[in-house]
Amino acid sequence: MKKRQIAFAGASVAMVLLTAACGSSEDKSAGSANVQPVGGTQTVGVGATSGSSGYGTGGGNEAGGDAGDAASGFGKDALTGPARQLSVRDVPKLGSVVTDSKGWTLYRFDKDTAGSSPKSACDDACATKWPPVPADDATVSTGIRQNELGSVTRADGTEQLTLGGWPVYRYAGDTKAGDTKGHGVGGTWNALAPDGKPAGKKAARDDSLELSVDDNAKLGKIVVDGQGMTVYRFDKDSAWPMKTGCLNACLDTWKPVEPVDRTKVAGVDAKKLTTFTRPDGSKQLAFDCWLLYTFTGDTKPGDTNGQGKQGLWFAVTDKARKAGVAAAK
């Protein structure tokens, strides 16, 4: 009798440990298994502002070249007014670019100082051609995090908007919403990406990483494999008990992610990475007990063509949740 009690207690402990390892981060029922803050309310779900998607090249010196005629078409309010709601739009050759509420492109200056103590290096004549964006009344839409917004006090005492720690400007040489003529001027002015970096420029990938997190303009922080390809999870899989719902023909389209070296991951909790043995004996990587796949319809790093497929496939966030889905789900 005593031996049976000991065996039962051991099995109970093993079950508790496995349950804890697999998934405290969300309800598994569906799968069965110094920058000061600016603006107060985040508005989500607003699409890209309409306007031309043309890609222009600027000329002239770092202060912006000859923009006198363009400024009259731009309008004083458009040059100097608050940005209000920032949006993200896709521009050929540049990718994701931040615009103000009227669709005018916003810029950053490489000679500024960013970070926790930002400082503008654009004053006087430069500020006429590159008008600083006031810090008041700024909110964000999908693709931009509210905590990326801030402000910096300029030499004249006014407050200028910052994004990702970088002071934000408009360009008087843009003549209509959607223009990006200020991008590349003087080799120091660039359209702003949603994280405050120069649009069209991505940080070099660490080739040693086998799993990491990428900032996606529409989905936020999502997991990518060693080649930068988006990683997905499947609602017909089960996290507890771990079980795959992708078999046979499904595997022609959705490729299981192979196990990784836990010392070569970044942005995710390596302790939540486990290995699952598939029915054919092959090994598959799981994150918080959700099996991971790549999509054959993605052809290059950054693609998310598998997102929402059949209402069952979703990119994976850095917390192992479904990207683009409310936290409760």
UniProtKB/TrEMBL annotation:
It holds the Pfam family Lipoprotein_15. One of its GO terms (biological process) is alkane catabolic process. Keywords: Lipoprotein, Signal. Residues 53-67 have a biased composition (Gly residues). Transmembrane segments: none annotated. Residues 28-69 are annotated as: Disordered. Residues 38-52 have a biased composition (Low complexity). Residues 1-20 form the signal peptide. PANTHER family: BLL4220 PROTEIN. This is Lipoprotein.
